[in-house]
Design a protein that fits this description.
- With 271 residues, this protein is α+β, with helices and mostly antiparallel strands.
- The chain has 2 domains: 58 residues, Winged helix-like DNA-binding domain superfamily/Winged helix DNA-binding domain (Arc Repressor Mutant, subunit A); 175 residues, GAF domain (Beta-Lactamase, 2-Layer Sandwich).
- It contains 9 helices and 9 strands.
- This is Transcriptional regulator, IclR family.
Length: 271
């Protein structure tokens, strides 16, 4: 195999060839003789042989009479990547796509007592009445992000959470009594998403959906928010909501996959 074009002076060809060998194993050819590995990768047989024997010595491949095959240790390479990512790094591509498709800002928040705290945000440059950034907190109940998370709590836990004083410093416009609050949360629970219309502050309109882990627990919420003077409720429900639900489902699936990755210590010399 000749040197690859468009590579810099620091490019390590031997490492690239090793990765080519690992990628050559596919579902239809999990075990291959040396000749086939060389043919698939375009490597000379002596080069392919040295790479395969190195992988065997490191525990990433095995050799038997049928040829060479990868071992489960190869999974460590993927696990290292997944473990290096934060939970919100996993969500960010979905949020960026959602923001582009709605032309609105979107955020993820988690419950903290009776407040929500923003933990991820993709903002679209627009004039808004409230400034939001990572770490911003608002009372949970008058927000769509808060409603979908509060609706998932058992009754006793809900009362305990809402009994805690807010630390946001903001007095919301909507302050329902217990009966109105429970009716709203029942509706949110039944339909699986929440809509707020200037309940937190004038001009703020948003729709939110829950984010779940692999066990189905609500761990956070994702919303799309807009200015009430620019975006109608019909637009929120008819256009933004389906896109939001799709993004929330995709993020939840990624959360579940991240949580299902077994813990593997990839430090050298650690079994």
């Amino acid at each position: 195999m000749s040197a690859r074009p468009d590579t810099g002076p620091d490019f390590i060809e031997a490492l690239a060839r090793g990765l080519d060998v690992i990628r050559s194993f596919r579902p239809l050819r999990p075990v291959m003789p040396l000749s086939e590995v060389a043919a698939v990768t375009g490597l000379a047989r002596p080069t392919a042989r040295r790479i395969l024997l190195t992988l065997v010595e490191l525990g990433y491949a095995r050799q038997d009479e049928a040829g060479f095959a990868l071992t489960p240790k190869v999974l460590e390479l993927g696990v290292a990547y997944v473990r290096s990512m934060g939970l919100w790094d996993v969500a960010r591509p979905h949020m960026e796509r959602l923001g582009a498709r709605t032309n609105e800002s979107c955020s993820i928040a988690q419950l903290d007592g009776s407040d929500i705290v923003y933990v991820a945000r993709v903002a679209v440059p627009k004039i808004v009445t409230l400034s939001v950034q990572i770490g911003t907190r608002f009372p949970a109940l008058p927000t769509s992000l808060g409603k979908v998370q509060l609706a998932a709590l058992p009754p006793a836990e809900l009362e305990a959470v809402l009994a805690q004083p807010s630390r946001s410093g903001l007095t919301p416009r909507w302050q329902p009594d217990a009966a109105e609050r429970d009716a709203v949360l029942r509706e949110v629970r039944a339909r699986g998403w929440a809509l707020t219309d200037e309940q937190l502050a004038p001009g703020i309109r948003s729709v939110a959906a829950p984010l779940r882990d692999g066990d189905g627990r609500v761990v956070a919420a994702l919303n799309v928010n807009c200015h009430a003077a620019e975006t109608s409720l019909e637009r929120m429900v008819d256009h933004h909501l389906p896109l939001l639900l799709q993004a929330a489902g995709d993020i939840s699936a990624d959360f579940a996959r991240l949580g299902s990755v077994p813990h593997v210590d990839v430090r050298p010399g650690v079994a």
